[in-house]
Amino acid sequence: MNSYFVIANPTSENLAKKIAKKLSARCLKTSLKVFPDGENKFTLLEYPNEGTIIVVSSMGPPVDSNLVQTLLLISKSREMSQNVIAVVPYMGYAKQDKEFLKGEIITISVIAKLFKAAGATRLIVVDFHSPNALDFFKIPTKNISAVSLFTKYFKNHKLKNPLVVSPDLFWKSNAEKFAKSIDATAVALNKQRNKKTGQLIINPPFPKFSKGQDIILFDDMVSSGTSILKSIHFFKKKNVGKIYVVCTHPVFVGDSEKKIKKAGVTKIVGTNSIPGKFSKVDLSGMISKTILDWK
Fold this sequence. Notes:
alpha/beta; Rossmann fold; 2 domains
């Protein structure tokens, strides 16, 4: 029987403890010191003699610091075990998966090389922004979806003729899966972003909906909130009912949370891929099952 040990980046400590409990694994103690110039120094306080080590570390803000911490933990884990599973529910830089404009660096391809070089032997991510970009990671990967967990969360909510809306065409298929699971309909807004200026425009055809109908804006992540805000303002003008914002990764940088609340949403629901007040849905069961089932 395989034995598991869990090491957590401090920002993912709560999720790591839940995963460890479900796997009957021990969380290894660490010490982190951040120097005045921003350098990170990790020290492991416990050392396993054998077994699989699971490094749990989401790359939320500050992304670069969390990336370095993740790589440090993976590297030290590989010194102690030949089996190191990197659990990175939210993977930073996943949007930088193409050379959109000449000269741009495909950053996620560089990150993928770093994970392999550090010693990760397997990788688990959740609702990875660009599934095709996982091909850059030259190690076995699993991209799991939180859609079914949101279904369970909304099971007891009394929604009025809900319409699930993907803020862009990219997330349309997941919006449709979620809508089907709660007996709702789904649409995707035809949102276009200017590659140079970043300006967002919602183009026709516009979705059809009824007066007073509840809207669930469903996306993989909310960071600056620009896309979600554009969608909220669009629907607020149409005299709809309640508006929910649902996302796997509640990043919320700057004043995005304040702006979204001010725009008039009823509730914001995210997972604990990134800890915070909107982390209503727990990923630990799904991640633990993926680890146990992965042969």
